[in-house]
Amino acid sequence: MSPDLLFGHAGTLALTGWAVLILGPRRGAFWQALPAWGIPALLSALYSGLALAFFAPTGGGYGSLAEVRQLLSSDWALLAGWVHYLAFDLAIGAMLARRLDTIGLARWLQAPLLLLVFLFGPVGFLLALLTELFLRAPARLASGQPAA
Predict the structure, then answer these.
(1) Alpha carbon separation from 105 to 64, 97, 101, 117, 131 (Å, rounded)
(2) Is residue 148 part of a domain?
(3) Cβ burial, residue 130 (10 Å; 0-12/13-18/19+)
């Protein structure tokens, strides 16, 4: 299988997880576990295989931007890096959705935050955390606890 074909399959798998997370029910163990554990685990297994097979031959490392460029210089190693992002962004999105459910944020208000996590990982993560902090602050202040 070529890196391009595997790239497409990994993307489809990740998009399935995001669709379930944003549009699917959050009741039932299966619907909670699929985007939170199932799909990230499959993507992580794929990443592990790719990383073990293709990072060492490229050389490079993590000490400088030039070393990272060399580390990801093959299509296979670049694919491994991409799959890493797909797995972690989905797992983080599922964790944030669970937290936002806990504070009662409507699903239609969660959707843009989750889309930002999907498209711009850390931006969505930060906005979701700030949203949670903002929504929890009044209750914490009323109880005399600090907002953070």
Answers:
(1) 41, 9, 6, 16, 9
(2) no
(3) exposed
Check whether 24 has a pLDDT greater than 70. yes
What is the DSSP code (8-state) at residue 36? I
35: Cβ contacts below 8 Å, ≥ 6 apart = 17, 18, 20, 21, 24, 90, 93, 94, 97
Tell me which residue range forms the domain holding 33: 3-142
Six token digits for residue 87? 């797995």
- Residue 43 inside a domain? The answer is yes
Extract the tokens encoding 49: 């295989």
Provide the number of structural domains found in the chain.
1
pLDDT digits (tens, 9 = 90+) for 108-125: 999 999 999 999 999 999
Q: Return the residue matching tokens 């993590």.
A: 62
**What is the C-alpha separation between 42 and 34, in angstroms, rounded?**
10
